[in-house]
Structure formats: C-alpha cells, structure tokens
Amino acid sequence: MDDDYGGHAEPGGPALSRTVTLPSGRAVEVRKLSVGPMDNNAYLLVDPVEGQALLVDAAAEPARLLDQLRGVELVGVLTTHGHRDHWQALDTVADATGVPTWLHPADRDLVPRVADHDAADGARVAFGGAEVRLVHTPGHTAGSVCALLGDSHLFTGDTLFPGGPGNTFGDPEAFRTIMRSLRERLFTLPDRTWVYPGHGDDTTLGRERPHLDEWEARGW
Question: Quick one: 16-218 is in which CATH superfamily?
Fold first, then answer.
C-alpha cells in the first residue's frame, strides 16, 4: 500500500491516494474522500495514462468532488445503492460534467435522478483502459451493488464493512439475503482482496472472513 494512503480518510480532509496495479499491468489511481455528515466515502478511480476516471458514489459535497476532477475526464458515476446519503451530490456532479450514471434497477424508486444505465450484475463500466465489474449484492437494499476493480480491489458500498455486513434494519429476511450475498458473491474472492466500504476505514476479505459465522449467529 502507498505510504500516503493508509485507508482512513478524515471527514473534510484531503483525498487519500494509492496506485494499484491490475493483472493486465495497467496502473489505476484510487482516490478516497470522506464527504458529508455521515462520513460517506466517495472514490475516484483514475486511469492516469488516458486521463479518464469513474466516480463511485457522488455522496455529498459536490464542490469537493468536482475539485478532484481537475486534470482528468470523468466518464461516469456509479451509485452503489439508493440510500440518500450516497447520492446527494449526484445531480450537481452529473449535470456539471454531462456524464452517464449507473444504478441497479431494483433501487430506482429510491433515487430521484433516472439512471442512464442499469448497474446489472456482471456489467462492466470502463474508464480509459481500465474497468470495474459490477456484482449485485442485495440485502442492505434490493439493488445494492459492489464494484470489482481487477481481481482484488472491491468497492462495497454499504454491503460490507470492517466488522460485518451493512445494516438490514431488523429485517430477518434482508439479513439472510445480505449474508448470502457475502458468502456467495464476495467471499469467493481471495483473502488479499482489498475492501473499500461506503463509510469509514478499509479492510480486506482475509481480515473479515474468520468472522462470517459469528455475524450469522449474532443476526446483524
């Protein structure tokens, strides 16, 4: 990990930055910014060779997000799920840049802006010579999606955090659903997979994997 990254973004503070190398050999810069009163993480993925970028969650503070675009061309915004704290800057950023947006159709009723593209399971969203693959992980919401960059960099929205799954609001069926999403969709990836959550600090699948049964037993 880059020395200036660390995985912890201070609310209102500067963006963290690390450069990761994909299996293809292409380098991608990952910038992490904490925005808004709920410590939402917004991630800008940049192909430095072609100067194109993808924004994961235009959560809040659009001026700070737009400031990150100096010198790069934004080509799209992915919203990981429909809860309000993850899209409050979406209109401003999308209107200012004219870029298309992605959202899973199961969450379309939660977001006032109509998405340009369905964030369907298995869909690929390109930026420059890189791309993310979308993984539908229902549970926190019906349309929650994660984005896999390369084979070991996973942007999880509110599906997975250090210490457990996202909130399922006391709904036993939703909890069973999110646990299936974790076991069958995310924890099939290798332990080295870096997890970039929608709030707070980063983790890895290897760090969290030993606790799956514990989460299942506690019910949240």
Answer: Ribonuclease Z/Hydroxyacylglutathione hydrolase-like (3.60.15.10)
